[in-house]
Amino acid sequence: MTALEDPVFALDPAYVAHLRAERGLELRFIEDDDFEGYLHLLGQLTTVTPLTREAFSLILRRQRTQQSSCTLVLLADGRLVATAKVVIEDKLSRGGSRVARLEDVVVCAASRKGGFGRLVVEEAFRVAARAGAWRVNFAARAEAVTFYEHIADGRITRAKDQMYELVLGSWLQAGAGPQ
């Protein structure tokens, strides 16, 4: 099964093809071969404890089989330049509705200000919507909130402390929906 055929998480093949043709970018779900590039990129966000290639592959296999999370990667010239993780939770308190959490958003320091963060976060929001989530929650440092506000056209609300949310319905109605 390919990433585009995943029954819960899906990338839009037309959007993926557009990025490849127009910008020479590859947008896809993370693969085992991304081990070194992903850990290097993640290390620009947080301290990464040692992880073997085998453990990395096991985690990715669990993501695919449990279908509760996915990690998007964006490559330029064959190297990983941005990533974002989407975690889906079925809420018993909300009649079984789904809520998404955005995690581990990172753009390679050498590639910042190139629009890569926007591309991967917008697609992460759309992946969450396609998976049935009505809201996306995420933590963000104060200096990063403007970045998310820009992507969501001002529809980000502060939930508490450094937690923010985007109600996908209003964002989708504004024309940013699943492509």
From TrEMBL:
Keywords: Acyltransferase, Transferase. It comes from the Eukaryota. Pathway: Nucleotide-sugar biosynthesis; UDP-N-acetyl-alpha-D-glucosamine biosynthesis; N-acetyl-alpha-D-glucosamine 1-phosphate from alpha-D-glucosamine 6-phosphate (route I): step 1/2. One of its GO terms (molecular function) is glucosamine 6-phosphate N-acetyltransferase activity. InterPro entries: Acyl_CoA_acyltransferase, GNAT_dom, GNPNAT1-like. Its EC number is 2.3.1.4. This is Glucosamine 6-phosphate N-acetyltransferase. It comes from Fonticula alba.
